[in-house]
Specification:
Layout lengths: L2 E2 L8 E3 L4 E5 L11 E9 L4 H16 L3 E10 L5 E8 L2 H13 L1 H12 L2 E9 L18 E2 L3 H11 L3 H10 L10 E4 L7
Parallel strand pairs: 3-7
Antiparallel strand pairs: 1-8, 2-3, 4-6, 4-7, 5-6, 5-9
Helix pairs in contact: 1-3
């Protein structure tokens, strides 16, 4: 059940609302490829984590009626606790806009999910991401999914050690490190309603 995430983030804009919402937008040639993934992170009030997850489990079908949920996880460790991380797939920005408009008009979604859960959320973050050309989204060979798949924390450590010995990896890191704004690793546990485990 180990999920580790690394991300490159270039924040173009962030605004403070109640609850706080931060967004990062990807730039460069990948933005013209159409399909993208929205990474959403909700920071929850500690005493409300279970209530939030139960309501989400009960009503996630209202949200997935509008767009594809790739996965939904709770954070075990890595940064602040009491947060959930989920990924939504969109064909393009027009598709995302259509989904957001439809959700704004969906009374059932508003009343059963959004309004009850807003009081449980301290902060939200949203990032637009694209798959790198050599990757693809697929089911892992075991009941584990990671954006960078590892069977365990120990296998991740061994793999990182091995990759540091590979000249191709070293060259790729040297080339891309100039673009790295931040990197974060988290252990994520899939929820019962997450398509990817």
């Amino acid at each position: 059940m180990l999920v580790l995430r690394s991300r490159l983030a270039a924040a173009l804009a962030a605004r403070t609302l109640a609850p706080q919402v931060c967004s990062s937008f990807a730039t460069g040639p990948r933005q013209y490829d159409g399909t993208f993934y929205e990474f959403r992170t909700y920071y929850l009030k500690p005493s409300k984590m279970n209530e939030f997850l139960e309501n989400t489990k009960k009503n996630i079908h209202l949200r997935t009626a509008h767009s594809e949920l790739v996965g939904y996880w709770s954070v075990e460790f890595g940064g602040r606790m009491n947060k959930v991380f989920h990924i939504w797939k969109y064909d393009n920005f027009a598709h995302r806009t259509e989904v957001r408009k439809a959700l704004a008009k969906d009374k059932e979604w508003q009343e059963q999910y959004l309004i009850p859960n807003l009081a449980l959320i301290d902060k939200q973050e949203s990032e637009i991401t694209y798959l790198v050309p050599w990757s693809k989204l697929e089911e892992p060979p075991k009941e584990v999914h990671v954006l960078w798949w590892n069977e365990s924390a120990d296998s991740r450590a061994a793999g990182r050690h091995q990759s540091h010995e590979d000249p191709r990896v070293v060259a790729a890191v040297r080339e891309s490190v100039n673009y790295l704004v931040s990197q974060q690793n988290m252990l994520l546990i899939p929820t019962s309603f997450s398509p990817l485990k």
